[in-house]
């Protein structure tokens, strides 16, 4: 289970940073930065893990606790930014924004993965960090819950794609909907399955104009 070993080893104020949403065909990429106080970890955080290992109900419970006891920053990069600068650079941008939105400058940002954005503080990468570092695990929960809830809201405005269930990922149902309904302005046109549908389509123009 993730713990604070890395945070204690690094010393000072450490923010765990993670992102979610690199793979979907629609929606933004979202990142979160979380600072935990080792002296203020309530029992309700017991079992906190990588968001992918938790149920939706568990993530919601942990998010409520984290909002109460942690310093949190959330950042995102839009679909337009993803299409313009590519998904990797957009993920870096989202993480930079998340750290900036903490409201305080950490001494170290502990980043999930093997690449770090340019930050005003020291950055340390940790491969599979969401399963190792409690701060990164917390950030993964915040990022995923934030993005999933945003996609559920978009699902109400753009029914038929199943975004409340698939969060924009390329499930079979989502791919079928692309062919049957067409694209929205929230689809990533630089991604292959979406790009394949691009062309002089009045349906696409109409849906974008209606937004």
From TrEMBL:
The record's InterPro entries line, in alphabetical order, gives: RNase_HII, RNase_HII/HIII, RNase_HII/HIII_dom, RNaseH-like_sf, RNaseH_sf
Q: Which cofactor does it need?
A: Mg(2+); Mn(2+)
User: What GO molecular function annotation could you give as one example from this UniProt entry?
Assistant: RNA-DNA hybrid ribonuclease activity
Signal sequence region: none
Annotated compartments: Cytoplasm
**Chemical reaction(s) catalysed:** Endonucleolytic cleavage to 5'-phosphomonoester
Q: Which residues form the RNase H type-2 domain?
A: 12-203
Question: Which domain of life does this protein belong to?
Answer: Bacteria
Q: Which SUPFAM superfamilies match?
A: Ribonuclease H-like
Q: Which HAMAP family match?
A: RNase_HII_B
Mind telling me which PANTHER family this protein's record contains?
RIBONUCLEASE H2 SUBUNIT A, RIBONUCLEASE HII
Say which family it is in.
Answer: Belongs to the RNase HII family.
| Protein's name according to its UniProt entry | Ribonuclease HII
Query: Which species is listed as the source?
Result: Aliidongia dinghuensis
Gene responsible for this protein? rnhB
